[in-house]
Amino acid sequence: MDYHTGFTDGYPLIVVFYRGFFCPRDREQLSQLVQFQNELAINYGRLVTISVDSPMVQAAFRAGLGAQWSFLCDEKRELITEINILDSTEGEYAYRAQPYTFILKSDLTIYKIYNGWFFVGRPTIEELRHDLRAIMETRADYHYEDYDTPQVKQVRIPQQEWVNGAPVLGANGLSVVQGVVRWFDIIAGNGMIARNDGGEDVFFNFTAIPGEGYRILSAGTPVKFELVESKFGLVARNVQQQS
Question: Which strand ranges, in their side-by-side order, compose the sheet holding 70-73?
Fold first, then answer.
């Protein structure tokens, strides 16, 4: 969606290095992140956690937490050695990652680092929220006015255009094309149409389907639509289901 509307700034990423499933401080931190994961998702942020535990151990830990983000494995200690956060002290935490949290911008440059050797050094949910807000505020589309443009309205069509019913296909001079919905992501509201003429697949947003509320089209549905050729690729508008 961002590509087709011309907003390509990307989104922030939270990277958490943790010692292991056995550490009570790690369990507490990750349990808090479970409570934050839905908010993070609807704000388009991403989260990943990394430890030296095996993939099987991490999968079990992830399932037990109810976490939905990715858990990555650094069993050979290559990454934590390279960035110099390997804990080589004695005890149960030896040769594991020191508990750091990195907040990364969309280009993967570091915005902030939290040293969690003591639990108080780990970021609270409110601190993460402030960090992500600061990064998101630098996006080109952070304000409403950025979406209220002809370029964006080619893709995210205002519902007011459909208030009197579906417009006649091609009445605005655009080419009318037939195709079949290749896929549709119900959560994101975006999909792709395979053209019957063999041309390049065409992107569409759910707002391009005339009607009220949240509209969906299942994969395999035959459609007719108007073809818009923008500098960001082909986009379908006035997508109408055919019997």
Answer: 70-73, 46-51, 13-17, 100-104, 110-115
